[in-house]
Structure formats: C-alpha cells, structure tokens
Specification:
With 461 residues, the protein is mainly alpha-helical. The protein contains 17 helices and no strands. It has helices at residues 2-9, 12-42, 72-89, 94-120, 128-149, 162-180, 194-213, 218-225, 229-249, 253-256, 259-280, 300-312, 315-329, 334-360, 375-390, 405-425, 457-460. Helix 2 (12-42) packs antiparallel against helix 4, helix 2 crosses helix 5 and helix 11 (259-280) crosses helix 13. The chain is globular and about 70 Å long. The model is unreliable at 1-10 and 182-187 (pLDDT under 50).
Length: 461
C-alpha cells in the first residue's frame, strides 16, 4: 500500500486529476447554492431570509483560529464533507439543496487553503502553480462537457447521470487520501507579509469568480450574444486543450511567459470581454416614450470581439498558475490563508450579488437603480480583481514543467466529446411558417422553478 501511495505521489497527472474533480465539484456546488438562494428570492419581491446561508462561504475565517500545525484528518474530514455534500445535494428539495450545497462550498473553501498550506511545505512546491492550473483547466473542460451533454443543463445533477458524479467522487476520495497521508509539518517562517498573502488569495478567488460567471458554461455566452452555439462551446474547449498540448510539446512554455507579457495578455483579454458585453447590452431608456426598444443587431465586429475573447481566454489559467505559485512560494501561515480566503470569499459573494442586482435591482431594498445597465461593470471589477494581484509578482517566473500525455490525451477526449455532444444536443427550432404571421406566447419560467420554489424543468416543459 505504501508503494502505491508513493507511486501516485510521483505522478503529476494524478494530482491534476484530483484538483480537476475538486474544482468541478466546487463550481457545481456554488452554482446550485446560489441558484437555490435565488429561487427563494423569485417567490417574492424582497431579500429572502435564506440569504443568511451565504455565511457558509466564510468558512476560511476559521483558519484564523488555527494552531501552527494541523493533523491530516482535518483534510480528510473536510474532503469527506465536500464530496458527500456534492453527491447528496442534487437529491434534495430546494431548501435542503441550498443547505447541503452551501456546506459543500464552505468545506471546499476551507479545504483548499489547507491543501495549499500542505503543498507549500511538500516535496515539489515549485511546480504547484502549473499542477493546480492544469487541474483547473481540466475541471473547466469537464464542466463544459457535462453541460454540453444536457444542452446547457449539467447532466450529472439529474436522473441516472448522477452516477457520473459518484464515479468521480470514488476517484477523488482515494487520491485525496494519497496526497494528504503522513503529513504533519511544523509552521516555518514565511517570506511575505500578510498584505501580499491576502492580495494573492483574493486574486485566486477572482479567477474562480470569472470562470464561474462565464466559461464553465459557455452555452450561456452563446445565447446571450446570439452567436453560433457550437462555435462558442467548441472554441472555448479547444483553447483549453490547446494550452495543455503546448505544455506537453514545449514544457518551457511557462518559463517563457514574462510578467509584462502576462499583463499585456490580460489587458487585451479584459478589453475584448468588456467590449463584447457593451456591444450586446441593451441600454434601457429612462422614459416610457422611448419604448419599444429594438433588439441589438449582431455585426461582424461583435462576432470578432467574441471570438477574440475566447481565443485569449486561456490567460485565466496562466493567471491562476502565477497566483498559486506566488502564494505557495511565500509559504503562508494558516492564519494568513484564513484571512486571505475569507476576504476572497467576500469578493466572490459581493460580485455574485452585484451580478444578480443588474437584473433584479428594482425590487431589492437598498439597491435601487445603480446597477441598471451595469452588467459590464461587474466583469470589469472581477477582471481588476484578477489583474491587480499580479502586480505583486513582478519578479516571478514559472518553472519549465511538462504536462503529462495522459492529461493532454484526457483533455483532448473531453473536448472531442464536448463538441460532439454540443452538436447532437443543439436546439433545432421548427421552420417558421411562410404565411407572414407569428404567434407569440409569453411565460415566466422562473429559472425552471415552480410556485413552491422547487426545481421542476420537466413540469415547465
């Protein structure tokens, strides 16, 4: 058994797979948690009392009370709570799902900094950035796959396809045990001040936030921009796989990326993202006489901006690598990680609420019309949240690390399946009649929830 553990520890691909599953489950739990809270808000025109459960996201603050060392069972216990919450929450009614998903998301936000604390004191901390970055890339690609299979809805959260999540959990559980077994380190002096640690933690959470808002579900981008669904999903997935392939063929790729080059890449990416949003956003007039407002006509420029944004999107993976590596190299204390990820959770929550307020501002007390037409601003702030902490890493370079062929091959398989399923499950609306008349039916689907606040997609249909 010891030989098996040691053999897996030496396989970077196994670590990337573990992190991919953890990141995928986190995005799924966070999505279901926010959706459940939002569902209760749909039942009225005020802030729902269930919003108090968002305090579960501040679980990292518990690390501020931690001692100088932590036993391995902390990791294993949190991992068990996280995995079990992911498996059970999809079986529960909305309120139970909200609680279970909140507990699971909180467990991850407490588990993740502990894993980073362990990695910083492990055998190969210098490769942590690339390892976790490719884990995030694979996790995002897997999210694209399960959503393409359900024509936009995550198939692993419904029916017999829930077995996929159980299989992934059965893979992650022993890997988590392997990578946390036999470690109990004494706290060492850390290199960086707490301000630097907090900044890097917030940057990592900002990267999670931007992925949560966009690329874990590129079908949303396709529908919002009225672009070709298959092209958007396919290009987003192919770009991630392309980054993995380059990392396999040219392991020195990461070391060739300079600080200035990364900032320039980020600036161009953010510019294209904001311009894409502004180009498609409908600006509502303040006077009733100005209505009706014609829908935006998609132009070649709009399409070019969207494609450019997708082509540059791998920069988020590289940003994540840099931020993780900078944090690990600083060998942060548990208390520093607790404070940093607690503030990072606050950033995630604030941006998520701001995202929601751009739609429901009119009936949320104390919010008002400030968020009207401010959809672009939310993404701008999140982008600054990613780019700002990179300014702390001026003298950093990533090491040359080869991405295993097993990871690249797995990523390629995921991308091929994603594109194939996106093609198969794409909507096929009927051809409109030629008699010149159109029958219009309006119906408030309430995000797929019924009057009792329970998810009921089949009933809606």
């Amino acid at each position: 058994m010891t030989n098996i553990r040691e053999g897996l520890r030496e396989r970077r691909g196994a670590a990337m797979l573990l992190y991919a599953i953890l990141f995928l489950f986190f995005f799924q739990l966070l999505t279901d948690f926010i959706a459940a809270v939002y569902a209760f808000g749909l039942l009225g025109t005020s802030i729902p009392p269930q919003l108090a459960f968002v305090l579960l996201l501040f679980a990292p603050a518990l690390l501020i009370l931690a001692k100088r060392t932590v036993p391995a069972w902390w990791i294993l216990g949190l991992g068990a709570v996280f995995l079990i919450a992911r498996l059970l929450e999809v079986m529960l009614p909305t309120e139970g799902r909200m609680i279970a998903a909140g507990l699971g998301a909180g467990a991850f936000l407490l588990l993740f900094p502990l894993l980073l604390w362990r990695v910083a004191r492990g055998v190969e901390p210098s490769t942590a950035g690339v390892t976790l970055g490719m884990g995030l890339a694979l996790g995002v690609a897997m999210s694209m796959l399960v959503r393409a299979a359900g024509s936009g809805v995550d198939v692993t959260t419904d029916g017999n396809f829930q077995a996929i999540a159980w299989l992934l959990a059965l893979i992650a559980a022993p890997l988590l045990w392997v990578y946390t077994d036999d470690w109990r380190f004494h706290e060492r002096n850390y290199h960086a001040g707490r301000g630097r640690i907090v900044g890097l933690c917030v940057g990592i959470m900002a990267a999670f936030t931007l992925y949560y808002f966009s690329l874990v579900a590129p079908n949303v981008i396709a529908r919002w921009t009225d672009a070709n669904y298959l092209q958007v999903v396919g290009l987003a997935a192919v770009m991630i796989a392309g980054l993995a392939l380059l990392g396999t063929l040219q392991p020195g790729l990461w070391a060739m990326i300079s600080w200035k080059g990364l900032l320039g890449w980020n600036f161009l990416f953010a510019l294209l993202l904001i311009q894409t949003i502004l180009g498609h956003q409908l600006h509502f007039p303040a006077f009733l006489d100005a209505y009706p407002v014609p829908a935006h006509t998609v132009t070649i420029v709009d399409g070019a901006l969207l494609m450019g944004f997708l082509l540059l999107s791998p920069v988020l993976i590289v940003d994540f690598m840099w931020l993780i590596q900078g944090l690990v190299d600083a060998r942060p204390s548990l208390r520093g990680l607790g404070a940093g990820f607690a503030l990072g959770a606050l950033f995630l929550l604030a941006m998520t609420l701001a995202h929601i307020f751009t739609t429901v501002y009119d009936y949320i007390p104390l919010v008002g019309p400030f968020f009207r037409d401010k959809f672009w601003m939310v993404y701008l702030v999140v982008g600054v949240g990613v780019i700002g902490p990179l300014l702390l890493l001026r003298n950093q370079r990533l090491p040359a690390v080869r991405i295993p062929w097993s990871v690249t091959g797995g990523m390629a398989a995921v991308v091929v399946l994603t594109v194939a399923l996106a093609r198969i499950t794409a909507a096929t609306p009927a051809i409109p009649p030629a008699d010149g008349t159109v029958t219009v039916l309006t119906y408030n689907i309430q995000q797929g929830y019924d009057e009792a606040g329970q998810e009921n997609l089949r009933g809606q249909l």
